[in-house]
Amino acid sequence: MIIDSSYLFDLMGEDPAAFSKGAELVDDGEMQWLPTPVVAEAYYGVATARSDTTEQAVRNRLLGYPRIEVDEEIARRAGELLAAADDRAGGDSGVGPNDGYIAAMADVLDDAVLTDNVEDFHALGVAVETY
């Protein structure tokens, strides 16, 4: 399972549905991968003046997840997925590059993205799981 920032933020906000889904994944032995673009999104959230989350809280939440890095294969696939989404939309699909990278990781690993942001990942044509 590829973890999106929406899931991570919901876990940090103690959302019962997100916590329950995480427990289910652990019980099922499902690997939960943390894309490096989600790491960037998490630290962006901490750095904004609107956040009361501490850097330590984010760091602690991120510790248990193995990372997936953006490499050339992921970058190439992200570009392809974003271009296809834009073509289907007849212009700008509104999907950002970080979601493109996350979707590419799901595509390359033949896995689903765990997210509450279903629309963007459906636009990118990858499997989605929610909670």
Task: Write up what this structure looks like.
The chain is mainly alpha-helical. The protein has one domain: 3-Layer(aba) Sandwich (Rossmann fold), CATH 3.40.50. It is built from seven helices and five strands. α7 links the parallel β4 and β5. The longest helix is centred in the middle third of the chain and has 18 residues. It is globular and about 40 Å long. The protein starts with a strand and ends with a strand.
Seen as an oligomer or otherwise, the chain set is single chain
Percent of residues in beta strands:
5-15%
CATH topological fold name:
Rossmann fold
Distance between the termini: 13 Å
**Contiguous runs where pLDDT drops below 50 for at least 5 residues:** none
Helix content: 55-70%
Largest sheet: number of strands, sense, barrel closure: 3 strands, parallel
In CATH terms, the superfamily is 5'-nuclease
Number of helices: 7
Rg (CA only): 15 Å
CATH first level:
Alpha Beta
Brief rundown of the structure:
This protein is mainly alpha-helical and 131 residues long. The chain is 59% helix and 8% strand. The protein has helices spanning 5-12, 16-27, 36-47, 55-62, 72-89, 97-109, 118-123, and strands at residues 2-3, 34-35, 67-68, 113-114, 128-129.
